[in-house]
Specification:
Blueprint: E1 2-8, E2 11-18, E3 21-24, H1 33-41, H2 46-50, E4 57-58, E5 63-65, E6 74-78, H3 82-87, E7 97-101, E8 106-108, E9 113-115, E10 122-123, E11 126-132, E12 148-156, E13 158-159, H4 160-163, E14 179-181, E15 185-187, E16 199-204, E17 207-213, H5 221-231, E18 239-241, E19 263-268, E20 272-280
Parallel strand pairs: 6-18, 8-14, 9-20
Antiparallel strand pairs: 1-2, 1-5, 1-15, 2-3, 3-4, 6-7, 10-13, 11-12, 11-18, 12-14, 12-15, 16-17, 16-19, 19-20
Length: 289
């Protein structure tokens, strides 16, 4: 099952994605994947929640939103592919390198990733996104995959200049509208356990710049869920962004950075393709929150 969140006639909806069309679920059932998994965690059955899906709507009539619009937590993993660690200035750590993103950093499939006005160092990172279904603390390793609802695609757009201003990466990893997410969440039962063995590819303007397999991750999905939950209570709808392989633009000579008018695509086998144009930030003066 593929679930996507979108706007239809001005209303936020959740629906079942099937090719080039989507079947909206009733608005009172769920309005994004986060709502859906919280209802499952509270005891609702998946069959009951999707029973009222409506007539198919062409994708041309909808606007995608991030599948989970406002996760409680977006926990990202750095240095989770050996080849990416080798192209960086770091030694391979023996514990996951974790940092956080904020919900304001998310942008949907087909929406622009915004290159900030303050820096010309916006880079791509194609990644697997893990959506938590049932939360908890101290989740055993052998039960960790039972807590995963499904998987999506992420582009961890990174403002490198700001990422490396300090030893702690967060600011460069959470600029507004730099984290592409979507277009859909594929439920875990549709994929190999832990989404293992899937090809991951990033393309910039049609050129393949990253190509790897999810088997190449240093810390697999079960390990990430287990280790993160040692410290942090995971909640339904939380997102773990599981790291990027080699090929980032910052490590190339000359550097390959994303600029206004570019198009970046991240594809993961059996999950989908996330596509984002790149657009320069438009400064219009201070805006009240």
């Amino acid at each position: 099952m593929k679930l996507c969140t979108f706007t239809l006639q001005g209303s936020r909806r959740l629906g079942l994605l099937d090719g080039e069309q989507v079947r909206p679920l009733p608005a009172d059932v769920a309005r994004d994947v986060g709502d859906f998994v919280r209802q499952l965690a509270a005891g609702a059955s998946r069959e009951e929640l999707i029973a009222g899906a409506g007539a198919p709507v062409p994708l041309a009539q909808v606007q995608f939103l991030p599948p989970v619009v406002a996760p409680d937590k977006i926990i990202c993993v750095g240095l989770n592919y050996h080849d990416h660690t080798k192209e960086s200035a770091y030694a391979q750590p023996d514990y996951p390198t974790l940092f956080l993103r904020l919900t304001t950093s998310l942008c949907a499939h087909d929406a622009p990733i915004v290159r900030p006005a303050c820096s010309d160092s916006l880079d791509y990172e194609g990644e697997l996104a893990v959506v938590i279904g049932t939360g908890g603390r101290h989740i055993p390793l052998d039960k960790a995959l039972d807590h995963v609802f499904g998987y999506s695609v992420f582009n961890d757009g990174s403002v490198r200049e700001y990422q490396f201003k300090t030893p702690q990466w967060t600011v460069g990893k959470t600029f507004d509208a730099t984290g592409g997410f979507g277009p859909a969440v594929v439920t875990a039962d549709e994929l190999p356990p832990g989404a293992r063995g899937l090809k991951l590819e990033t393309r910039l303007n049609g050129q393949t710049v990253q190509s790897a397999n999810t088997d190449d991750m240093v810390f697999d999905v079960a390990t990430l869920v287990h280790v993160i939950s040692e410290a942090i209570t995971l909640s339904p709808g939380d997102v773990i962004v599981a790291g990027t392989p080699a090929g980032i633009g910052w490590a190339r000579s000359p550097r390959l950075l994303m600029r206004d008018g570019d198009v970046c695509e991240v594809s993961i086998e059996r999950i989908g393709t996330l596509r984002n144009p790149i657009a320069d930030e438009v400064l219009a003066g201070a805006v009240a929150a």
